[in-house]
Amino acid sequence: MSLKIDVRQAEGVTIISPQGRIVFGEEAAALRENLKRTLASTRQVVLNLAGVSYIDSGGLGTLVGVYSSARAGGADIKLTGLGQRLRDVLQITKLATVFEVYDNEQEAIATFHRGAA
Amino acid sequence: MAFPTIVGPSSGTGSGVFPTLVFVQGNEQRVINLDHSPFGVGRKVDKDLVIADPRVSRDHALIVSENGVFSVVDQGSKHGTFVNGERVERKTLERNDRLEFGVREVAYVIFNPQHGTTNSAREFLSQISGMHISDETTDLEKLVLFLEAARKLNTIGVLDEILMTLLDVTLKLTRAERAYVYMKNARGELRLAAGRNAKGEPLLDDKTISHSILEDALNSNSEFVLTDTSRSADLTGRKSIVAYDLRTVICVPLRKPQVQATRDAEAPAGAVSAEVMGALYVDSRFASRDISGVSNDILHAIATEAASLIENARLVQAEEAGRRYQQELSIAASIQQRLMAVTIPEVPFAKLAGRNLSCKEIGGDFFDAVNTNEGLTIVLADVSGKGVSAALLASTLQGMIYSQLTAGMPLTEIVTAVNRFFTDKNIGEKYATVIIARVQHDGNVEYVNCGHILPLVVSSGEIQRPAFGNLPVGLLPDATYKSDHCQLKPGDRLILVTDGVTEAENARGDFFEDSRLEQAAKTGTLEQIFTAISSFCGGTPLNDDCTVVELLYTG
After folding, report:
1. Cβ A93–B454 below 8 Å, yes or no?
2. CB distance B553 to B492 below 8 Å
3. Which of B160, B171, B218, B170 lies closest to B194 in space, CA to CA?
4. Nearest CA in chain B to A88
5. Contact A12, A110 (CB under 8 A)
6. Do A24 and B475 touch (CB under 8 A)?
7. Which residues in chain A have Cβ-Cβ distances shorter than 8 Å to B428?
């Protein structure tokens, strides 16, 4: 199981930082569980992917799945810390238009405070 | 998918299931069906078994079948073909033979492996029933007989056969009239598992046995309980004994073998009673032999050996179930392979070729090609995840797309329909990246790219990457899809790949990436691209399927 997930609070927003590889199987399942649990008690999540070395199709599916159910439940997940690789993947899959991506944690948190959608 | 053992099915009896090869390389093990002959082994990517190691020759060896006999034939390889450590040119293969091609230890193949045989058990059973144990047979001889039975049966797994043998042998050893074995089910309830009388006839009901003695035996800590009613003073409560005139009753609780019980329950050493998993019950009536003189040694041997026999049988049965499941998967994999077999359409204006390198027996990539009035359409798709679930969806997806293509549907409508199917059916986090490209005779290409790796167009030695894209299918229900166009000149090549190619890793953790792909595609053929991938990876096994499709537009 090559994924560790750090969770912390900052200014009323929950920041989730996975470290390792998000791949189909145990790792994707772990991320899904973690996000589901978090979303049970908060509506504002920033997912910082700076520590993610690799994400495969299964991992991406999990990301989109959790994002969709978060939105359906009135919560929001903003992404930050995307490396070049992940940016390329989101570009090719056109998911860059679906997710909100920010350059750093501060900016993502700020949009929550501004009440921006 | 994780299974405790990966061993092929046993099929030496012409049941119609193909023999298997188990290919082992490093930590990877794969089961391959030998479902056609000749079966090619080598480094070339189009071999039936591809071993990506430089010491393996491109056309290293063939496995051929003649009249149901399989042989391995070396094809003049540089470093030789070995069977069980011996270098051979041609050799017939037997079960469990170990084949090595060019490299030793690093990668090898086991031919049609199998665990034990059931034949010896049946032979032995027939020996037992024919055996005559006279009154003169000493207790020691009887004991040896039983232990021999126990040891032989330990090699096979059929629980019912073992129970029957246990009863037969017990009856012979004790010279009792009837014997029953009871086993505890999953809920801990004692159930009759088998019964036998001295004539060898099966006994199906146990109404006339003494259940009260059986109860007592189970609750006691003794190894066995022997009741000689002619000596018992008090038979109140022993209804059956009185009613059916039972003279002697022997009950042997079957306790889980001590070592295992201790390991399982982490009981302190010297724990008194190990878990009871069943009981052996043996009786005879006044009218028949007096079995009360049965020696304690015999009963002791039965008590200890019987339990471990049964426990072994249960373990082997569980393993057998695992193996059968693996066999089912192998069959599913060969069905999938057949579905994936593409008949490349012949068109005057283009030459099409496609190759797939699977990392597992069953996968989520597929490619297909259909020629209609609308043009020559090629599809390449990659379902998310791996294993059986991905493969199942890949086959469904292939069916949907293939039928819509032959019906001449527009490309954007096809992917929209597929997206509806995946999202309506709420399959979970499964989605697919798809690219469909329709080539006309004039070189015009309409393509719809749904989240897939950008196609490559190799034109006059330069690489272009047509970049119009859409979301993958199956992710978001209200996604819309648009197509784009590009133009091919005669001599241009259109190349489609799945992300298994760009994400192929070497030992250092580097990825093959677009840069190396473009480099290989500039000057290389389909085969050369695959060679570039396997050279880059070295010994590192693929963690995802690789598919490359190449269309050469001739005009």
Report:
1. no
2. yes
3. B160
4. B453
5. no
6. no
7. 65
Q: Can the peptide bond before residue B113 be classed as cis, meaning omega within 30 degrees of 0?
A: no
Cβ of A115: how many Cβ atoms within 10 Å? 6
Query: Do B431 and A92 make contact, defined as CB atoms within 8 angstroms?
Result: no
Helix (H) or strand (E) holding B30: strand B28-33
Three-state SS at B292:
coil
Cβ-based burial of B305 (10 A; exposed 0-12, middle 13-18, buried ≥19): buried
**Which of B385, B433, B503 comes nearest A24 by C-beta?**
B385
Angle at B275 between CA B293 and CA B270, to 5 degrees: 85
How far CA B213 is from CA of A19, B216, B281, in Å, comes to 63, 5, 9
Task: Give the count of Cβ contacts less than 8 A between chain A and B.
Answer: 55
Per residue in B524-551, pLDDT tens? 888 899 889 989 988 888 888 889 999 9
Q: What is the 8-class DSSP label of residue A96? A: G
Q: Which amino acid is at B284?
A: S
Mean pLDDT of B288-304: 69
Both structure tokens of B91: 């050799």
Whole-number Å distance between alpha carbons of B220 and B213: 10
Looking at the complex, report in whole angstroms how far the Cα of residue B478 sits from the nearest Cα belonging to chain A.
Answer: 12
Share of chain B above pLDDT 90, in %: 30
Residue in the block written with tokens 């629980």: B159
* Site of tokens 């096994």: B541
- How high is the ipTM of this complex? 0.74
**Tokens in use for B175?**
């010279």
Residues of A in contact with B470 (CB under 8 A): 94
